[in-house]
Design goal:
The structure is a single chain. With 462 residues, the protein is an alpha+beta fold. It has 2 domains: 296 residues, Distorted Sandwich (Glucose Permease (Domain IIA)); 91 residues, Nuclear Transport Factor 2, Chain: A, CATH 3.10.450. It is 18% helix and 32% strand. The strands form 3 sheets. Strands 12, 13, 14, 15, 16, 17, 18, 19 and 20 form a 9-stranded antiparallel sheet that branches. Helix 5 packs across helix 6. The chain is globular and about 80 Å long. It binds zinc ion (ZN). Zinc ion binds next to loops.
Length: 462
Amino acid sequence: MRNWSFLEHIKLRWGEITAVSVGVLLLSLALSGGDEESIPAAAEQGEIALTTEPVVAEPVDISQRPTSRYELPLTWEGPSAKVETLSPDDESTPQTLLKQRSVEIKSGDTLSALFQSQGFSARDVYRVTQDPLAEKTLRRIRPGKTLLFETDESQQLVGVYYELAINETLQVKLTGDKFVAEIKKRPIEIRHAFASGVISDSLFAAGKDAGLSDTLIVKLANVFGWDIDFVLDVRKNDSFAMIYETKFLDGEFIGDGEIIAAQFINQGEVFQAVRYTDKDGNDNFYTPEGKSMRKAFLRAPVNFMYISSNFKPKRFHPILKRWKAHRGIDYRAPTGTPIYAAGDGKVIASSQNKYNGKYVFIQHGNNIVTKYLHMSRRAVSNGKRVKQGQVIGYVGATGLAEAPHLHYEFVVGGVHRNPRTVKLPEALPVAKSERERFTQQTQSLLASLESYQKFNSVALGQ
Ligand SMILES: [Zn+2]
């Protein structure tokens, strides 16, 4: 289908859309607070330690929050659909005559032992594994999975089942006088869901309020992680909206899929991204104009999900004016927070001294070096190649640091630059040869995102 009937579906089935209840929130994760003193001139090698106040996690009143998550009663029929085809199950034996029992596979179990434990003979094992597919598959049974045996009214083995994946089962059934194996696949139905939220404490909190899983919140942050620093840039009243996939098996929800379109409004600036799979099957996020969301450097080299501190909306954030004073940016974060390589590169230092504590320097292309100080633990050694987003160490307070934080420096051609404002090369946009296809596929998605947001606002009385 070219013109997805999204909007019509929504109109028709709007009455069925129900808000999913909001979870209880125990922890408010937020960007770094603003109570540190400004930093005097930096020490030669490292920096002056920060004064930090203890981070307080507060429960959040979510009753008034205009956040929501809707299941959209839609089946995705666009190009990214991954619905598999299924041959209808041709069971003809009346189920009432058959009995099933299952056994969980434990470490060290053999097929023979499992058969035996259920009262079956070595001959049963032999007969079942005469089928090459059964033999090949059952030879690799894994602990934690389940083997299911089926017997007829005279207790004879007539079937063996082994789950290969959530929607994939090996079925070995007695057919005539032989066991015949076959892998049965059930279709995973992809539906669309919409979620939106307004941030009052943090993206994490707002995402939770909207009913999103941690994984989805991280995915959302990853979509915009090259443009927005989710530790330092997020403010009260920032908002997000997204359409994402949900997976269903036999009508039952089995998990979230990928984000397919998303918007984040950060301090009034609108960022939009849409997922596009090119003709070679590569998935990437692009702006509506077809520019890549991906860039050479991440905005924040720390996992924002670990950052927990109170929001100080009315106060100027000190980080921005402070970076110049000591040539770096500080991310206050609990000890152990993963630190990421901001870009692809090679480790040119992984060491420690009394100023920097444990530190890692990475050499990137374009004569750029990034530096990460005060780690509690380093995760890479000198000379090693690293990928963007790879964990290179963990936040700590080693060297000249009073409280756990990451001190991050960005050096271009030997000159310290502010990573928050420096212009960086962008990844390749959508290829010219794919522009038409890109536009066709993404325009309606972005239009849907807008429509959902409007409906959502209406539904919530805004
Ligand atoms: Zn610092």
